[in-house]
Amino acid sequence: MSLRIDHVLYAVSDLDAAAARFEEDLGLESLPGGRHSAWGTANRIVPLGPDYLELIGVVDPETAAESDFGRLVLDAGDRLVGWSVATDELEPIVQRLGLEVERGSRKRPDGVRLAWRLAGLHEALTSSGGLPFFIQWEGPGELHPGGDHSAPPGIRWVEVALDEGELRDWLGGAQLPVRFAAQGRGIAAAGIGEIVLV
């Protein structure tokens, strides 16, 4: 079973202001994503080839306050809050780890609906984003938010403050470009090209 880093999540208090800042300060241009109605959030996407950076903010505070994920984004301010690994075989992971599968979707501004199945989001949130959640995209590969799957990965590495054995067990031994921070808890940094996000 192959796993790869799919995306990193960066919570922002204002999506439009963050998009302008990421483009001006870091040269990372984002595209409008869509709304996650069940979480009270919306996103903007920085396509990076086979992977992407997700800027995510709260657009419906009432709904966000009732959702674990929405609350995380609501309380985070502006910082990295998590990461995800993609698989084409979600079921064996779910069975091995005893996880539940959740379905998600959002509509892009052009009306195209993106759909996915994910597992381990609750566990990822309770690890402060140190553990990734698993995602399996549905539909044609060209709809993936990253864009060009033939390009080299844009996310070169992630750094987590987490027990190395815990992460290895979670990933079933899969080797990913992960660094380990000596202090803290959760996702600490991500390398996008020569840019280091914290």
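Above is the first protein from milestone M3; the second protein from the same milestone is given next.
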Amino acid sequence: MVAHAVDVTLDVPGDLAPYQAVAIFPKVTGFVKSIRVDRGSHVRAGELLAELEAPELLAQRAEAQSKLQAAEAELAAARSKLDASTSTYDRLKAASATPGVVAGNDLVLAEKAREADQDQMAAIQQSVEAARQALSAIAQMESYLNVTAPFDGVITERNVHPGALVGPASGPDSTLPLVRLVDDRRLRLVVPVPEAYVAGVTEGTPVAFSVAAFPGRTLTGKVARISDAVDVKTRTMPVEIDVANADGQLASGSFCRVRWPVRRSGPSLLVPSRAVATTTGRTFVIRIRNGKTDWVDVTTGLTVGAQVEVFGDLHAGDDVAARGTDELRPGTDVRTVPAKAGS
């Protein structure tokens, strides 16, 4: 028995998923005025997908505009009043430089009136700013009536037509998005790698795969993201492979057969597959030492051609029986004969 580096390729399933996907819902409640895309439409980021109309927003904007104008008019009146009280105070203060011309109490009253007008103007300025912010918020809400694409992609689903009532929390179609958009220029090939084969997975490793739509054609991608956590339900670790799809030939959701490379970090002990015996209670190989047999419990790993990986109390150079059987009991005297090539 000798130790060999194990470098094999396994056939595992995988699924192509879009690199980006989003269900687009409206941010405000309204009626669909027009929708410019349908299933299969290719769109660019920022492109208009649908127009909504909400008459109540027009009324809210008019009301907010009126409140802003009233606040600005009140601010103008307060500014004029402050200018007048400031002018009065300045004249009285200048006149008070001549003894006996202005009573001291009159100057104090003028100063207090000016300070009160300053405070009133500051309060009205805050009201104007609040009214301006309210108008800006309504204008922002109105901009939500135009639904645009957040990124380049293709429309894969459309659920509404003109006249439909839609919104984030109301309407008969509120549980369905207006449209669904996916970015298919680059795809994620998601591979659930079995727990036994996750060791040695590194980013950038090229991986080959095939899809049913292109029989006989081998495609490639590179490992891009590793979850580094095993799913306790399936005992697999999801790994994502980036797949370029600029020509759009590959469809998201396609099932793939992935040729997953498995490489051990060090040499493995390999024995002929027939050398491993299995009984009800144990799996073992028969080691021959000093002309006598000995059962050695093992666990098996990868199959490499006619040989299989074994793990147990074995070492490179040990002699094992070419065919394992429970009929050959421990302690039996045997004579070893070199195995034939390929056996």
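Note on the second protein: The longest helix spans residues 55-95.
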